[in-house]
Design brief:
7-stranded mixed sheet, 9 helices, 36% helix
Amino acid sequence: MTQLSAPSLLGVFAHPDDESLLAGGVLAQHAAAGARTTVVTATWTAGTHRIPELAHALHVLGAGAPRLLGYADARIRASAPGGVRLVDAPLDEAVGRLVAHIRQVRPDIVVGHDALGQLTGHPDHRRAHQITLLAVEASGLPHLYPDAGEPWQPAALYAATHSESGVDLLGPLLQSVEKTVLAVPDAYVTTTVDVSPWAALKWEAICAHQSEVARERPLPGLLARLPEAERNEIIRTESFTRLSPGPTPGDPRRLIA
């Protein structure tokens, strides 16, 4: 990824490990260039076993400490004991929580999920996508969520995604454990980044999510059982769709030149 200067990034993802799998290379790349990088995670709460794993992964990627919206995973109630699931949370409330983080962090670029909910269409991914779209717009409007901090408008929003032609190795891997594979048409992808120089850091961050690596069906576990060369081929490329107009041509804050 080439830019005149390193824009600050805020990643907004549904679960611990999404940040590493979907944008770990870009996060590491920007951190290495001196950019401020941060991640907000919508589900799982402090005191649950996945938050120390998330903290480790973010440390590896140079993305600071975890920031949590505090909701429960749609499929794991213990992820937020006594809390509401992300998919059941009032939309206005969830958007407001994210707006507060955006206004605190003041990122140039926000990166999140795509409308499909990534390859498997997880409902938390789809809900996080919807919340992020609304929050990025609302964060710049002073009359919305006035108690959430001073307004801040990110320059651009990108959705991490997978193209139909880019899942030749990943698709069969997911199908081997009876998972669906949802990919977007190639034309939907506006940005493809070769993160090979940061692939080792990305893999280290994925492995920080030890509880997922130890399981058979989640993607970290599937990747861990692959030959190294095949795994590297999968993780060395990250694809994104730009969802907002963002800065004018020539603005150095652009994610991609």
